[in-house]
C-alpha cells in the first residue's frame, strides 16, 4: 500500500510509521494529506498517485523509469515462477526470514520492486525508495503489501530520521549514481548503530573491460524510447548466437562477451520468449544509464574503514562486489 492510502485510512501504528517522514529543508515533521506539508517551514511535497515525491519528476534516472515501467513484472519471482531474486537477496545478504520479520528495512533504488517483493514477504516493514518513476511500477506490483511504503526520493536527500532503520539494502544501484562514494556513505546515515547492511556495486576492471563500454558513450545519449526500440529489434537476432557461444565448454562465458546482448546463466532455464524479454531488459539496462561507475575492492575497503563498519565482508559475485556487515 502506498503512503497516502495508508495515512488516510490506516491504524494508529501504521500511521505513526507512515507519517514519520521529515522535511528535506528543515527536518521537521510532515503533515499528511493529498500533499505533504511542513508546518515549520511551509515546504510542500506532492503526492503522485499515492506516492510522496521529494525529487523533480524529470531527473538523470528517467531511463530507469522508462525501463521499469515497460518491464514492471519481468523480473519479479511471482511472475517468473523462479526464485531468482529471493536466492540472490538471501545469498548476498546472508539474512534470514526470521532476521527480517517485523524489522524496519530501507531499500534504496528499488526499480520495479523485484527485491521489494521478497523483502515484504518476510514480514519486514519495508520502505522502498527510488529516484525515478519506477516507484509507480513497484506500487502497481507490490502495493498489495500492507507492510510496504514507497517514496520517490534520492539517496542524497531522504525524508527519514537518521539512524532509524534496522536493515539497509541497496543492490544494483550505487554505480549508477553521480558520486558513488557520497552515495555509499550517505546510505549509512539512515541505518541505526548495530543495524545490518547489504550493498552491491559493479566490480572495477571486469565491468570496465566489457564490450558494452564501446557502445555506452553513444547509447546513453539516445532518448530511452528510441534506444529501447533498437534493443528490442537487435536482441532476437543476437541472443541465439550468444546462447550458442555460452554452451561452448570452459570458454563459453568469455565468448558471450563478444556479443553485445545480455545473456545471464538463468536464461537457459526459460522459454524463448521469456529469455528474450529478460535479455531486452538487461541489454537496455547496460546501455542506457547516464552513470556507470564500477569500483575497485581497495576503495570499498577504505570506505568501510572510514565509516567504522563492523563484520564487513566484501565478496565478488561474478561482476559485482557485495558488501555486507554491521554498522
Ligand atoms: C539498475 S536499477 C536496479 C533496480 C533494483 N534494485 C533491481 O536490482 O532490480 C537502479 C535503480 O536505482 C535508481 N537510482 C539511481 N540513482 C538513485 C538515487 N540517487 N536515489 C534513489 N534511487 C536511485 C534508479 O532509478 C533505478 O531504478
Automatic annotation (TrEMBL):
Question: Can you give the residue ranges of the Methyltransferase type domain?
Answer: 106-199
**Which SUPFAM superfamilies does this one have?**
S-adenosyl-L-methionine-dependent methyltransferases, Trm112p-like
Query: What Pfam families has UniProt attached to this entry?
Result: Methyltransf_11, Trm112p
**Which Gene3D superfamilies does the UniProt record give?**
2.20.25.10, Vaccinia Virus protein VP39
GO MF entries: S-adenosylmethionine-dependent methyltransferase activity
The record, for InterPro entries, names:
Methyltransf_11, SAM-dependent_MTases_sf, Trm112-like
State the name under which the record lists this protein. Answer: Methyltransferase type 11 domain-containing protein
In its UniProt entry, the species of origin is given as: Streptosporangium minutum
Amino acid at each position: 500500500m502506498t503512503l497516502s492510502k495508508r495515512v488516510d485510512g490506516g491504524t494508529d501504528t501504521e500511521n505513526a510509521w507512515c507519517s514519520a517522514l521529515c522535511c528535506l529543508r528543515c527536518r521537521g515533521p510532515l503533515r499528511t494529506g493529498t500533499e505533504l506539508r511542513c508546518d515549520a517551514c511551509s515546504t510542500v511535497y506532492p503526492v503522485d498517485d499515492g506516492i510522496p515525491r521529494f525529487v523533480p519528476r524529470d531527473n538523470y534516472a528517467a531511463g530507469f523509469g522508462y525501463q521499469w515501467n515497460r518491464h514492471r513484472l519481468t523480473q519479479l519471482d511471482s511472475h517468473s515462477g523462479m526464485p531468482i531474486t529471493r536466492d540472490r537477496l538471501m545469498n548476498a545478504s546472508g539474512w534470514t526470514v526470521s532476521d527480517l520479520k517485523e524489522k524496519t528495512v530501507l531499500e534504496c533504488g528499488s526499480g520495479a520492486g523485484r527485491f521489494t517483493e521478497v523483502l515484504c514477504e518476510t514480514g519486514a516493514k519495508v520502505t522502498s525508495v527510488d529516484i525515478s518513476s519506477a516507484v509507480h511500477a513497484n506500487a502497481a506490483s507490490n502495493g498489495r503489501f500492507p507492510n510496504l511504503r514507497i517514496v520517490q526520493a534520492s539517496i542524497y536527500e531522504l525524508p527519514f530520521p537518521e539512524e532509524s532503520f534496522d536493515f539497509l539494502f541497496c543492490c544494483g544501484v550505487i554505480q549508477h549514481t553521480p558520486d558513488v562514494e557520497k552515495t555509499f556513505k550517505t546510505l549509512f546515515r539512515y541505518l541505526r548503530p548495530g543495524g545490518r547492511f547489504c550493498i552491491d556495486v559493479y566490480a572495477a576492471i571486469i565491468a570496465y573491460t566489457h564490450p558494452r563500454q564501446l557502445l555506452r558513450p553513444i547509447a546513453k545519449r539516445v532518448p530511452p524510447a528510441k534506444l529501447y526500440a533498437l534493443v528490442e529489434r537487435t536482441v532476437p537476432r543476437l541472443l541465439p548466437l550468444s546462447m550458442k557461444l555460452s554452451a561452448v565448454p570452459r570458454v563459453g562465458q568469455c565468448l558471450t562477451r563478444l556479443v553485445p546482448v545480455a545473456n545471464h546463466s538463468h536464461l537457459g532455464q526459460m522459454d524463448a520468449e521469456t529469455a528474450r524479454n529478460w535479455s531486452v531488459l538487461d541489454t537496455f539496462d547496460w546501455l542506457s544509464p547516464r552513470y556507470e561507475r564500477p569500483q575497485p575492492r581497495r576503495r570499498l575497503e577504505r570506505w568501510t574503514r572510514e565509516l567504522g563498519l563492523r563484520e564487513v565482508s566484501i565478496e565478488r559475485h561474478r561482476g559485482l562486489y557485495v558488501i555486507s556487515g554491521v554498522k
